[in-house]
């Protein structure tokens, strides 16, 4: 596989993912990804992206559950 940004080779490894939702920060360590050995850009498999999106939705739902207004 080649990097979409620089064309370098991708190697399977793990990385840290940081996401923000409605003022909250989600930081995940040791997330499996394909990492470019030239520029360091990560590429996540579809299943990993789905899992991250589910976690972000839980954070967002928790914000709503706490009584905060979520903008559409």
Describe the protein.
The protein has one domain (10-65): Ubiquitin-like (UB roll) (Roll), CATH 3.10.20.860. The chain has 72 residues and is of the alpha+beta class. The longest helix is centred in the C-terminal third of the chain and has 20 residues, at 46-65. The chain has one helix spanning 46-65, and strands at residues 10-21, 24-36, 42-43. The chain is elongated and about 40 Å long. It has a 3-stranded antiparallel beta sheet with strand order 1-2-3. It is built from 1 helix and 3 strands. 4% of the residues are buried.
Task: Give short descriptive properties of this protein.
elongated, 1 helix, 28% helix, Ubiquitin-like (UB roll), three-stranded antiparallel sheet, 72 residues, single chain, 3 strands, alpha+beta, 38% strand
Radius of gyration, taken over Cα atoms and rounded to an integer in Å: 15 Å
State the distance separating the first and last CA atoms: 37 Å
CATH topology term:
Ubiquitin-like (UB roll)
Structural domain tally? 1
Question: How are the strands ordered across the major sheet?
Answer: 1-2-3
Percent of residues in β-strands: 35-45%
**What's the CATH architecture name?**
Roll
Sheet bearing the most strands, described? Answer: 3 strands, antiparallel
The pLDDT mean sits at: 86
Basic shape = elongated
Low-confidence runs of at least 5 consecutive residues: none
Tally of helical runs: 1
Q: Which CATH class applies here? A: Alpha Beta
Tell me the helix content: 25-40%
Return the string of H and E elements: EEEH
